[in-house]
Amino acid sequence: MAPQILWIGLGNMGRGMVKNLVEKGNLDKPLLIYNRTRKRAEDLAAKLPSGKTEIVDSVEEGLKKADIVFVILSNDAAVEGMFDNLLKGDVTGKLFIECSTIHPDTTEKISKLVTGKGASFIASPIFGAPPAAEAGQLVFVPAGPKSAIDQLRPYIKGVMGRAEIPFEDQPVGNALKLKLVGNSFILNIVTIMGEGYTVAEKSGIGAESLKKFVDTMFGGIYSIYGERMLKGTYWKMEEPLFSANNALKDAGHVKSLGDSAGVELKLLGVANDYLKTVADHAGGDKGDIAGIYGAVRKNSGLKFENDA
Length: 308
Hints:
Blueprint: E1 5-8, H1 14-24, E2 31-34, H2 38-47, E3 53-55, H3 59-65, E4 68-71, H4 76-86, E5 95-98, H5 104-116, E6 120-123, E7 126-127, H6 130-135, E8 138-140, E9 143-144, H7 146-152, E10 161-164, E11 167-168, H8 173-203, H9 207-217, H10 220-230, H11 233-236, H12 244-261, H13 266-282, H14 292-299
Parallel strand pairs: 1-2, 1-4, 2-3, 4-5, 5-6, 8-10, 9-11
Antiparallel strand pairs: 7-8
Helix pairs in contact: 5-8, 8-9, 8-10, 8-12, 8-13, 8-14, 9-10, 12-13, 13-14
């Protein structure tokens, strides 16, 4: 018999993950879903096969029925607040899978609280943007007891993800360390591209010519972010794929990680400054990380918004 799963958090990553878990996870019970804003849960449930989800009005209600609890929220404070509520109930024998991008120290702290209450805990942050979540193509980074990670694995490959980078029987904070270092790569890539496209435009060679070079030589994530920049998606989208506030949070966490390791992350400081400009211009929760291109433009005497 498959376990009863409770899903907490329906942001732009959680919605796609739930869709694939419901459609491909071989669940024999409705997936319990909870979101702080109930309407978001109702809208998602309406798009999924009838009878495959059950909206719960409180985490306490869902926890009573659940064997496995997935949590994916936006920041450390939200995650800590959620676990404060969850751990007020009886969690003995339950498994918590924490997928948020938070500081490794926060993860370790929560893990100790959870296991101290008789439950199991693994951290499993994910790599991939919302379109990858929608397509079931995420990369999972699970850390913690192998026996607990094995309970997650049926829902990774071919369901919500395409691969995993496991830290079996290792500290749960290791998963977050890798996630943060990986996200620093994204921040630096977007910064390089934002500066490059602005130089190309202002020097006369044109951004489209540079895009041909990028697509031919690099492709992949470089091309994806290039599209978001040159088509103006970074300023037209209603909901960011990776908000400026979340990117600033990650930048702060990875700087802390570098400081603790005795490594100065100089490139990260440049990205951080651009992100502050994005947040000031578009709003921290509305501006997208690709808006770094707009920040470079603004700093260079152009409009933040391009003419796409």
